[in-house]
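RECORD TYPE: inverse folding
INPUT: structure tokens
STRUCTURE:
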């Protein structure tokens, strides 16, 4: 695999999820071409809080891309090609645990993939590469995100397992109950393969899940609806922005507290 040519236009990349389509002001937009096709939208870049930040709405500017149609490889490659080393991936998510409530935030530490057919690696050969995703999220970014969340007055959970489903449909009661009984806390449709693709490009990645609803596997809860997801996410957009405004300035220039930057060391066969 030819690595992307780095043009250092941004250090930190932020993905926008459902209901979160705009983040930065006074931006300049750039079109980025990749070997994997077009990213979801032009990338908006601005210098804020002493950092060069890039923003990309993963569903497109008008939410025209459902989860299973997002070009995850192009999105991550585009960030890497402009110099991004840290990626923050906020998203709307459902709760599988009654103790994790709508309006709260979960800084996930694990994920389970239940998708199918997604392009989820940059390594289709001839360089056979097995990157470790034992801990799929950057430990340093997770810690900083949790600290930022506490400072802006939201209720944060310092860890949680996200199960990523294919979509675009919501889960059946049986599926959701299965996930809940497995002990997983968060359900989402876009968390995979975003995190593992970032790891393959040796970028730090942290997920911040904004809980918008209880999934149907939580007993006594009415079925989730898209309308309710968007309503809760929109109502909490200001909190998410405040969290990011705290988090981004706290990210150190050098990556010394994690191993993300050396993820390919020893990963290649031969």
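DESIGNED SEQUENCE:
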């Amino acid at each position: 695999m030819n690595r992307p040519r780095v043009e250092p236009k941004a250090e930190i990349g932020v993905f926008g999820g459902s209901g979160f389509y705009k983040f930065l002001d006074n931006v300049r937009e750039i079109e980025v071409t990749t070997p994997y096709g077009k990213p979801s939208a032009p990338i908006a870049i601005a210098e804020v809080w002493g950092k060069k930040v890039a923003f990309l709405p993963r569903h497109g500017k008008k939410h025209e891309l459902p989860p299973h149609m997002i070009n995850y490889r192009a999105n991550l490659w585009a960030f890497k090609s402009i110099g991004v080393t840290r990626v923050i991936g906020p998203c709307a998510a459902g709760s599988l645990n009654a103790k994790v409530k709508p309006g709260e935030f979960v800084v996930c530490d694990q994920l389970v993939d239940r998708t199918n057919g997604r392009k989820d690696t940059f390594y289709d050969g001839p360089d056979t590469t097995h990157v470790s995703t034992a801990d799929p999220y950057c430990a340093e970014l997770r810690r900083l995100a949790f600290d930022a969340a506490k400072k802006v007055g939201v209720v944060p959970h310092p860890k949680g397992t996200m199960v990523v489903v294919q979509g675009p449909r919501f889960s059946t009661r049986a599926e959701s109950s299965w996930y809940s009984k497995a002990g997983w806390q968060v359900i989402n449709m876009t968390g995979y393969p975003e995190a593992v693709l970032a790891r393959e490009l040796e970028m730090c990645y942290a997920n911040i899940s904004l809980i918008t609803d209880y999934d149907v596997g939580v007993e006594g809860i009415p079925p989730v609806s898209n309308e309710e997801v968007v309503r809760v996410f929109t109502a909490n957009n200001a909190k998410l922005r405040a969290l990011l405004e705290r988090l981004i300035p706290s990210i150190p220039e050098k990556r010394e507290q994690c191993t993300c930057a050396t993820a390919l060391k020893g990963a290649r066969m031969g």
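NOTES: The CA atoms of residues 121 and 153 lie 37 Å apart.
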